[in-house]
Amino acid sequence: MNAAIETVGLTKTYGAKRALDGVNLVVGEGSIFGFLGPNGAGKTTMVRLLTGLAHPTSGSARVLGSEILAGDAIGSEVGYLPDVPGFYEWMTGAEFLEFAGRLFALQPATLKGRVKTLLALAGLADVNTKIGGYSRGMKQRLGIAQALINAPRLLVLDEPTSALDPIGRKDVLEMLASLRGRATVFFSTHILADVDRVCDTVAILDRGRLVMQAPMEELKRRYGARKLVLEVTEGADRLADEIGAKPWATSVVRSNNGAIEITVADMNAAQREIPALVAAQGLGLSRLDTGETQLEEVFVELVGGSQH
Amino acid sequence: MTGFAVFAGKELREILRTWRIWVLPSIVLFFAVTGPLLARFTPQIVGALVGNQLNGLKIPTPTYVDAYVQWIKNLSQIVLIAVIIVYGSLVSGEIRSGTAVLVLTKPLSRTAFVIAKAAVHSLFLVCVVVAGALLTWALTWLIFGRAPAAPLWSATGAFLVLGLVFVALMTLLSVLIGSAAGAAGAGLGGYVVLSITAIWKPLGTYSPAALTTQPGSLAAGKDVTALWPILTSLVLVPILVVLAGQILRRRDL
Questions:
Q1: In CATH, what class is A227-292?
Q2: How large is the ipTM?
Q3: What are the backbone angles phi and psi of residue B105, rounded to the nearest 5°?
Q4: What is the pLDDT of residue A289?
Q5: Which of A94, B104, B145, B250 matches a 20 to 30 Å C-alpha distance to B30?
Q6: 3-class secondary-structure state, position A2
Q7: Residue A114 pLDDT > 60, yes or no?
Q8: Which of B58, B45, B172, B191 is CA-nearest to residue B115?
């Protein structure tokens, strides 16, 4: 698979602060790539470097095969939405989209059709007021529309859903999912549920460093292989305490439905000993299964400790 | 070229559809109207204010020259200061509001962005000042019965060259200084420095500094050669604008 984005040792410092620290990232063409990280991790810095808005301290970035030279206009095949998009407030939404489309030198007929389609997609087709009167959510939706005006091969979005209500968020995520296979979508966010919902690949950034990059399926498989779910007919509390004392159990949690969720350090030992423990206590074993790991758990495990 | 033309068109529409269409034109047209009137009635105004205290000192009968000098004096002081203040946020305003980020991640270079802004606002200043000069010319003719073209237009033209220098300077300062007030303050400082350096003969003869005083002399019908300061100014304007573009290219947005 060709790389839509490739960075090598990308570093950005502000004085003594290292906002981005030697990031090596590969984003495959056609993927929906979630760039996760807590606030202040360096996500926006990364996006600004990829769009040529900021100069790297060291390292390099290639976007759609071309090296990004900060200060120069980026290619016409990239669409970009900043975290807080700024618009000419005296324009209407349609006027801004026309202006953006003309910067890409779109033909008038193509532009007219795209403006109409994108305004409808953004839910702004019947809004004739100037952008100055828009709510933050409306501006965010217009921002996504303008990022799509050139039908980009690569869409770079910085926190695209952060200003949206639940319905707006759902619409945007569905729209991003609909681009799967047609365009590469790279979006930064701290909302794990959004990544879980639409992304096929994810990278996690923590304090300027890339701590993990993997396809979602592999990620869940890798971390899911460390989790067991156990259900017994009775006496679950006593069993949970006993399991919690074992060296191979890193955490034991009781779920709402009464099951015991065990994160294990040694899966083989756990699978051997758990049935024996159940039998030793004379309990009935209803279920012993590998659990599905939520992205949140992976995220907390990878960056959670460093937040405190 | 496409991006430049599209962005320049946006600048033009922004002038026509925002406060910008009111501020400079209102100031210039106000002085275009009041200049000839003030010149015509100065003796009466002075007489009413000081009464018999002049002890027989006669105020000369005003002529078209007084109207022209008044017009140029207002341009060189109040209008130039207004230009400095208005354009203190020419580039930084777009950076601060986030619009520059959206525009500059499309096929538009930072240099084209800066040049388009400077070019459109220079054109706007020329249009406004020419409109004001036409108005003051017509009123002078109506009030004084005589309004020769040469002194008025040569003086207005010389001022306009200085105006273009200041639009270019403010373009540069608004790239260098993020705060509109800070850039305006630096621009006013530049104006003061330019006015003072005009006292030194070489600069007062050949550099743009000469244009702080020469328009007044031209309006008064004095024999002044403004060729050198105009030439050096016209060389300085693109240098300032291109420099602004280059500095913006090196900046993080």
A1: alpha beta
A2: 0.90
A3: -100, 15
A4: 83
A5: B145
A6: coil
A7: yes
A8: B172
pLDDT tens digits, one per residue of B121-180: 999 999 999 999 999 999 999 999 999 999 999 999 999 999 999 999 999 999 999 999
Q: A7-11, A163-167, B133-137 — which is least confidently predicted?
A: A163-167
Residue B61 belongs to domain spanning: 2-250
Q: How many CB atoms lie within 10 A of CB A17?
A: 9
* B50 in A contact zone (CB under 8 Å): no
A105 lies within 8 A of chain B by CB = yes
Q: How far is CA A77 from each of CA A7, A74, B244, rounded to the nearest angstrom? A: 18, 8, 28
Are B32 and B139 in contact, with CB atoms under 8 Å apart?
A: yes
Mean pLDDT in residue range A121-139: 92
Contact B2 A102 (CB under 8 A): yes
Interface list for B 9-28 with A (CB within 8 A): 10, 14, 17-18
CA B5 to chain centre: 24
A73 touches chain B (CB under 8 A): yes
Number of domains in chain B: 1
Q: Scanning the structure block, which residue is given the tokens 């926006």?
A: A44
**How many CB atoms lie under 10 A from the CB of residue A207?**
17
CB nearest to A51's CB, from B17, B99, B105: B105
Q: Which tokens is B71 given?
A: 């017009």
Q: How confident is the model at residue A274 (pLDDT cuts 50, 70, 90)?
A: very high
Nearest to B245 by CA among B168, B180, B166, B163: B168
Least confident of A53-57, A167-171, A302-306, B50-54: A302-306
Q: Where are the domains of chain A?
A: 3-215, 227-292
For A13: left if phi > 0, alpha if psi spans -120 to 50, otherwise beta; the answer is beta
* C-alpha pair distances (Å), B110 with each of A91, B107, B114: 22, 10, 6
Flag whether pLDDT at A249 surpasses 70: yes
Query: What's the gap in Å between the CA of A7 and the closest CA on chain B?
Result: 19
Cβ proximity of A73 and B103 under 8 Å: no
- What residues in B contact A55, CB-CB < 8 Å? 250, 252
Which chain B residue lies closest to A72 (C-alpha atoms)? B109
* Chain B CB contacts of A72 below 8 Å: 109-110, 249
d(CA B194, CA B190): 6
What's the CATH code, domain A3-215?
3.40.50.300
**Top-confidence residue, A230 or B11:** B11
Alpha helices in chain A (DSSP H): 43-50, 93-103, 108-121, 136-147, 166-178, 192-198, 216-224, 236-244, 267-280, 295-303
